[in-house]
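Researcher: First entry.
Model:
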Amino acid sequence: MRSLIAVVLAFATSTLYALSTALQALEARRTPRTTALRATLLVRLVRRPLWLAGTAAGAVAWPLQAAALAFGSVALVQPSLGFGLVVLLALGVFVLGERVGAREVGGVAAVAAAVGVLGWAAPAETGSFNGAGTWIVGAGVLLLAPVPLVLRRTGRIGGLATSVAAGVGWGWLGLVTALFDGALADRRFAWVAVWAAAVAVVSFGALLSEMTSLQTWPATRAIPIAFGLEMLLPAAVAPGLTRVAPPHPAAFGLGLALACAGAFLLGTSRAVAHAAVPLTEP
């Protein structure tokens, strides 16, 4: 029952994240590329009501994600965020009149099958992080913080680098959120503050990278990379960072592979891309 609640909350989370992506990307495409990976990009965007509406949707989504992680494991919740791609597909079909083909049907089936398999094969709960796991997540936050600056200084402001940075950032947010949940449950309020600050740091870098990727690259290329990493990275590494292992490792691997396939099929769909941003070519 807890796993089912986690999936339902993840679906609500992914719906809000999808709406957030669509609204924010619409405005990001309208900003000058000279603002790529600069704080001025967000300064420009924060003045636009549509972008703020998308940000509000994302802000509401994060507590729902934290609640989902309180009921289910990272290995189940993060791949379930792939439902966000299904929501974008629905927006493309019912709002924009896009057509559904074999790619879209296969993508939806793969995501649904992945969640079903992981509901059985993934750990029921994330469990407590081992000592090394906590340090690794913390070190990851410190490494991710300067990524936008490093990419800009090295001239890597193109879609591939920023899409990967966004996907890794949002994926790492899932691990940080799980640690935040654990600290809150144990009433270790000093650590609650530490992980809350880490959430802010990771979210800022991921958001800046995501807006730049959608500003500079076709959505059909940016979306599958960012979504795929967000779904799979935390689920893949969580068993090694926590004291809980998947009860059915082979099926767990199959579930992650299905989630990856679904992210690729839906992320490269023009119907999904048109729902995320009106123009799929920069």
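Researcher: Second entry.
Model:
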Amino acid sequence: MLVEFRVGNFRSIREEQCLSFAASNDKSHEDTHCLEAGRPGVPRLLRSAVIYGANASGKSNMIFALMTMQLLVLNSTRLLESQFREQFTPFLLDSDARKAPTQFEITVIIGELRYQYGFSFDADRIRSEWLLVYQSNKAQRWFEYHYNPETGENDWQPFSVHFKGEKKGQRELWKANTGARSLFLTQATQSNSLQMQPLFNWFANDLIVLPARAEFNLMPTLQRLDDPHYKEWALRLMNAADIHISDIKVEKRKGQQIEFMLEPGKAPELRTFDGDIPDVEFCHKTIDGKEQWFDRRFESYGTLRLLGYAAPLLDAMENGKLIVVDEFDTSLHPLLTRYILKLLHSPHLSAKGAQMWMTTHDTSLLDPYLLRRDQVWFVEKKKDQSTELYALMEFSPRKSDAIERGYLQGRYGAVPFLGNFLF
């Protein structure tokens, strides 16, 4: 479960910003919208958080930051130097920030432990990395190091006695094998550290990020349509949107596929080959009950996007994962967005503690019957054009306040300033 995520000096984000899933003392929807953390020192956690803000205010950059952190954790030991440099995108509108490192930190609960993990980096190397683990209220600092530019080496803190290698000397070997652009977490996990595995696996398996700009990937959904239970769930989701699809099937079509080969020391290579390409077809029934099948060309973008959401949503609810969606309302009717949030908030349907972090412009979600006040966040551009993230709770709203109307009137900021436009 996600407790909080922090990011500093990344794209439009200059000063450190923190998105917290810690629930307030508000008793609204306590049984449905909150999760028991089950760990000392951690309050109840929220099942979802929704971020609002004007275009180009930095909502997506918060999600890009989490994606970049995930990419580096999973791949830092095998990125080419040029690929590593591409990940460093600091706040460029300030001369000091351009030279300063980017920093990420995340706090998650996995099983019986709370992990507080972070690192900083620039275009050349990892500058620092640390991991604090809580079995109780007291932190165990499993490892921490900071790069020393005077010596050109990392200054390591002593390893915690609670962090052990399976064999004598393994921790020192993992440390020695951690390169300038590699994370110790990645290196230790790939060297079979059993204690590091749960945190690495959280990034690999329990974090689902769906960016707005990427081509929507139907493949995870299509791969599961052979499962009758899953297919029934997907059809129920589609028909809840009043789309009137009676069946879905996957057809294999002959086509040319492209494979991108990238190996260290070799030029990139594109390879094409003939193969079976899965595609989806949708069945609609005529007024006299006959079946008519259509391929994806005849379905709306909203229908395809909803089908693409089906697999990640079900995966998150079945297995208690975090799903992060940028511009969740794109091509979805507001009532459908509400429906999906209600599914996620249902303790019966989401029994393993799934969480969702989304950005949206859909102000109809600012409804006290749908969201608690502590689930709402705003993003705004400051005078220096940097991003500021803040919670609705900072305004101490009353339960009777009309949050949607107040937001559109500019009471909470995070709305565009619309000047006069003259031809």
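Model: Note on the second entry: The chain has two domains: 1-206+320-423, 219-316.
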